[in-house]
UniProtKB/TrEMBL annotation:
Xref: SUPFAM superfamilies: Sporulation related repeat
Protein known as: Sporulation related domain-containing protein
Keywords, comma-separated and alphabetical: Membrane, Transmembrane, Transmembrane helix
Keyword Transmembrane helix: yes
Segments passing through the bilayer: 46-69
Pfam annotation, one family: SPOR
Organism: Pelagirhabdus alkalitolerans
InterPro entries in the record: SPOR-like_dom (IPR007730), SPOR-like_sf (IPR036680)
Entry superkingdom: Bacteria
Gene3D superfamilies according to UniProt: Sporulation related repeat
UniProt feature coiled coil, ranges: none
Length: 260
């Protein structure tokens, strides 16, 4: 509906129109019409721009959906491959493996309430040319000298110590047990290790065996550290009883200590 404007005329005393007033009112009318037309023009342009943006957005969305659906129809396995690409293969999946206790006959040198007193005991035996090991237990810190596959072997080794300390004695000892999440490759190695324990006939050949090769790499970081510890033990000691004891203790820590 067209907007109507009211025009007011000022009439002088002589009943005639004031010419200046008439001209001013006419000019105001023209200016109002121009402003109104400009506002309507701007509003139309804004509406057109918004409408075009909506149309373009919808068109782009339909095009993308069409391409996506068309790709799925042509190659339905492509999406399945993408979804499973990062999943481990069946043979690479970690499996929970129960790891048993390691047992051996050890020569015990003493039992100490504190780690400090146990360390003093270690120093005393080191001055005699021995290399004892501290083993933390619920009762305190036990001091072991070596470990053997049979009680008879342990007794024979103990006889050489009686001249130093008659309080030494032989006892059966065992490590901890537990569960570990291991890959098939790591599980294969630890199984071979457990099958050969206590290395009764092969301990002297361990450094050259396929079981302990410096280039061997494990997926489990803790198992890798245990393996590296064993390599260090084999290179540091020559006595089989000491080697067996230290390997047994490293295995014990591998199962219990999260810092390994």
């Amino acid at each position: 509906m067209e907007r109507k404007y009211t025009i007011t005329y000022h009439v002088g005393p002589d009943q005639t129109l004031n010419e200046s007033t008439q001209n001013f009112e006419a000019a105001s009318l023209e200016e109002s019409k121009s402003t109104h037309m400009l506002s309507r023009s701007i509003a139309k342009r804004i509406i057109v721009v918004i409408s075009m943006s909506i149309v373009i957005g919808l068109a782009f969305g339909f095009l993308t959906m069409f391409i996506f659906l068309n790709r799925e129809i042509e190659d339905p396995l492509a999406f399945e491959s993408d979804a499973t690409a990062n999943q481990p293969k069946p043979d690479e999946q970690m499996e929970e493996m129960p790891l048993p206790k390691l047992t051996a006959y050890v020569i015990q040198l003493g039992l100490f309430e504190t780690e400090e007193s146990a360390s003093e005991g270690v120093s005393d035996w080191q001055t005699k040319g021995y290399h004892p090991l501290k083993w933390e237990t619920d009762e305190g810190f036990r001091l072991f000298l070596s470990a053997y596959s049979s009680k008879e072997e342990a007794k024979n080794a103990q006889e050489a110590l009686i001249d130093f300390d008659s309080s030494t004695y032989v006892r059966n000892w065992e490590s901890s047990s537990g569960l570990k999440q291991l890959s098939s490759q790591d599980e294969e190695w630890i199984t071979s290790f457990l099958d050969q324990w206590p290395f009764q006939h092969s301990l002297s050949d361990l450094p050259d065996s396929n079981l302990f090769q410096p280039t061997h790499q494990f997926e489990d970081e803790k198992l890798q550290r245990f393996y590296d510890q064993v390599l260090s033990i084999l290179s540091e000691y020559d006595d089989e009883g000491i080697i067996r004891l230290n390997i047994m203790h490293a295995y014990h820590q591998f199962l219990l200590d999260d810092s390994l």
